[in-house]
Design a protein that fits this description.
Radius of gyration: 13 Å
Largest sheet: none
Number of strands: 0
Helix content: over 70%
Number of helices: 2
Length: 61
């Protein structure tokens, strides 16, 4: 696998994990836990955008 393919794969894994965290936050009954999960999801989404932009030269949607 090429470096760009690995980068794309990591970005996709980060987006998948961010989605899982977002869903877990929606199910969380504790407000502090919900906020913590939402923040982790947001950070992963930002990292995946950076990873994708390095590979593509633009920010993916």
């Amino acid at each position: 696998m090429s470096v760009s393919g690995e980068s794309r794969g990591r970005a996709q894994q980060m987006r998948d994990k961010a989605q899982q965290l977002t869903e877990a936050a929606q199910r969380a009954s504790d407000p502090q836990e919900r906020q913590k999960l939402q923040e982790r999801a947001r950070r992963l989404q930002e990292q995946s955008k950076q990873e994708g932009s390095m590979e593509q030269g633009q920010f993916p949607e």
